[in-house]
Specification:
The protein is an all-alpha fold and 414 residues long. It contains 17 helices and 2 strands. The N terminus is likely disordered.
Length: 414
């Protein structure tokens, strides 16, 4: 009989199923890892190059695996509110593809949303509570390896991306969003080392090293929204990790450290967030305010159902030259109208409430601390990027993975 593998911490742990890790990583690679430069208008045109076909094929492989492995049957099951809201949000996204002006692209994206939902439900139904932690650890290793690869091997970049770090042909905004998730996760595991939780447990220096690599890559992308999201996530980690007097002590020390950093590196911080841009461009948040104004004009034309999935990308490209809503809520209002936006808000609110209620033996658990931090980090970043309110990207994948994570953690602490 095969023996269980030895982890980084030197202990031999019980062997656990690895299919959730491989399935999530496959969707991450398929969604946001770009292996060629492509014009912005090529996606909405419906033209499929070999890499688009590879992306579709990876999603199809995951779907076929889930179908063969678990043989889903049509039967009514009692589910909690969080599960029903996840279903409702996914159905609204997929259903809006039927009236999208970019039907081919929308249909593919709708199918990808269904695959991500099926994967999340499979994890929640058939995995142990350590599965989300194994996914998080593997994801952080992938991100750290990507950063190392990007520093060693430089790929050509567009003129608008000069001076910003990335790897392969990934846009720095997407790279920053992915690294922000990994940075918050590694900070969470480092801070919650002494708390009870399931999943792999690596030594603190390993978490610190992964955090340093991912944080360095994140700062080098110069993606301000992602950096802000990571800072919010780390602050939530510090606030929720301790209670009572210890929280006050940590808060005071953290405040003093932040003031010292701000006083000594204020010019460097200002240069980082200004990024050499004019005051007018900064005032418009890199033309985002103009885009949002146009988005609300289009939203007023179809306020209830929107224009259909992926329509925001094509409409904004035609009128302004920017693809996507550059804000998760704005993106949903244009694509799915109030129906999708309210479903998204309800889902996130339910997730925050479910994470807040996670307690183990009367004390906050590591799952609670990490999930709250990750949720707030994604929400802060969603002000500037549409990933959390759009299909087929890493942030959307993590949204549904966190739904499964909350279901497993809630089942254990109930």
């Amino acid at each position: 009989m095969a023996r269980a593998p030895i982890g980084i911490d030197g202990t031999r742990a019980e062997a656990k199923p690895t299919w959730p890790v491989w399935c999530v990583l496959a969707l991450v690679l398929a969604s946001d890892f770009k292996f060629r430069l492509r014009a912005n208008d090529q996606a909405v045109s419906g033209n499929a190059d070999p890499f688009v076909l590879l992306e579709i094929a990876l999603y199809a492989v995951v779907a076929c695996f889930l179908f063969v492995r678990f043989r889903p049957a049509v039967r009514t099951r009692r589910g909690d509110l969080l599960t029903w809201l996840a279903y409702a949000y996914a159905i609204v996204l997929a259903g809006s593809a039927l009236y999208s002006p970019y039907f081919q692209l929308a249909l593919v994206r709708a199918a990808q949303v269904i695959v991500v939902l099926a994967l999340a439900r499979s994890i929640a139904r058939h995995c142990d509570e350590g599965a989300p932690h194994r996914i998080a650890h593997a994801y952080a290793v992938l991100m750290a390896a990507s950063v190392c690869f990007g520093f060693v091997v430089r790929f050509p970049q567009l003129p608008t991306q000069k001076g910003r770090f990335t790897w392969l042909y990934v846009h720095p905004v997407q790279a920053g969003a992915m690294l922000a998730v990994a940075t918050v996760l590694m900070a969470g595991y480092a801070i919650t080392t002494g708390l009870d939780r399931a999943g792999p447990r690596w030594r603190l220096p390993v978490y610190a090293a992964l955090f340093a690599v991912c944080a360095a890559g994140l700062v080098a992308t110069k993606t301000r929204g992602a950096v802000l999201g990571a800072i919010v996530g780390v602050l939530v980690l510090v606030w929720t990790r301790w209670r009572g007097q210890r929280k006050v002590e940590v808060g005071v020390v953290g405040a003093v450290a932040l003031i010292a950093v701000a006083l000594t590196t204020s010019s460097a911080i200002e240069d980082f967030f200004a990024r050499g841009e004019s005051a007018a461009r900064l005032a418009s948040l890199n033309s985002r305010t103009n885009l949002w104004g146009f988005a609300f004009e289009r939203f007023a034309e179809h306020p209830l159902y929107g224009f259909g999935l992926t329509s925001s990308r094509g409409l904004f490209l035609e009128q302004i030259g920017l693809g996507g809503g550059h804000n998760a809520l704005v993106n949903l209002l244009v694509d799915t109208g109030l129906l999708g936006a309210l479903g998204w808000v309800a889902l996130l609110g339910c997730m925050l409430l479910a994470a807040h209620r996670l307690r183990r033996h009367g004390a906050p658990s590591a799952d609670r601390t990490i999930l709250l931090a990750l949720l707030f980090a994604l929400l802060a970043n969603s002000v500037f990027v549409e990933g959390l309110g759009a299909p087929a990207n890493v942030l959307c994948t993590w949204l549904f993975v966190m739904v499964a994570w909350l279901s497993l953690a809630g089942r254990t602490t109930a």
